[in-house]
Amino acid sequence: MTPTWKAAAESLVADLRNVFGDRLRAVVAYGPILDGAPDAPLTSLALVGSLSADDLQGCARCAHRWERSGVATPLVMPEHEFLRSLDTFPLEYGEIIRTHERVYGEDPFTTATIAQGDLRRACELQAKSHLVHLREAYIETGGRPAAVARLVTNSAQGFAALLRNVARLNGVLISDRVEVTRAGARAVGIPEGLVTDMLSLECQPGIAATDASRLFPDYLGAVEQLARAVDTWRT
């Protein structure tokens, strides 16, 4: 935790305690600021005992100060609602679990768990949606190399997220973004070289850039392979 990061987090907690008092149960930070992007806004999850319209107004009064301080609007949820929505948002909460750091209170993810069946169904939906949209978007490019390059580049982040989710589905719990992405690729047999090229399009430090348009055939094949693997995945 850098000094700037810590100061922003402590200020956020102070504001939330002013609004919720002892109803503030936990605050965890997550996202790019903990994932190798120190200049990204601070994203966080705040769990509370109860949440009313007056509470929302209290948070709203802090919004401009948070924005000026590089703090994204926190995801504020009643604790019971959070526990009952783990099956609804398994990928989103899984990503928080991967990168989070406790800021205040107890770490909610020491006891809250995501069922493998819920995670598999969500991965299947994500993978097949990515495949359908990738095919459709390619047709829309008209095959123009520049347009294909933009398509591959713009979808690289979603592809990497897919691989991280597949890694989690296969029990890989490491937090490093690049390593967990590579682990997901290995789990479904996607070539290491393609993963390196796709990661380069996410501007990962230390990975050289590549010509995006030439990647499309292998990229499409990898997404098809990934969708099949998730569809047939068994514990």
What would you say about this model in short?
This protein is an alpha+beta fold. It is 58% helix and 9% strand.
Explained architecture:
With 235 residues, this protein is an alpha+beta fold. It folds into two domains: 3-110, Beta Polymerase, domain 2 (2-Layer Sandwich), CATH 3.30.460; 116-231, Four Helix Bundle (Hemerythrin (Met), subunit A) (Up-down Bundle). Helix content is 58%, strand content 9%. The protein has ten helices and four strands; from the N terminus they run αββααβααβααααα. The protein has a four-stranded mixed β-sheet with strand order 3-2-1-4, sandwiched between helices. Helix 8 runs antiparallel to helix 9. The longest helix has 26 residues, at 116-141. The protein is globular. The model has no long low-confidence stretch (mean pLDDT 90).
Give the SSE map:
Elements lengths: L2 H18 L3 E7 L12 E6 L4 H8 L2 H6 L6 E4 H5 L6 H10 L1 E5 L10 H26 L3 H25 L7 H12 L3 H10 L14 H16 L4
Parallel strand pairs: 2-3
Antiparallel strand pairs: 1-2, 1-4
Helix pairs in contact: 6-7, 6-10, 7-8, 7-9, 7-10, 8-9
**Strand arrangement, major sheet:** 3-2-1-4
- CATH domain fold name of the largest domain: Four Helix Bundle (Hemerythrin (Met), subunit A)
What's the β-strand tally? 4
Assembly annotation: single chain
| Strand residue content | 5-15%
Shape: globular
The total of helices stands at 10
Number of domains: 2
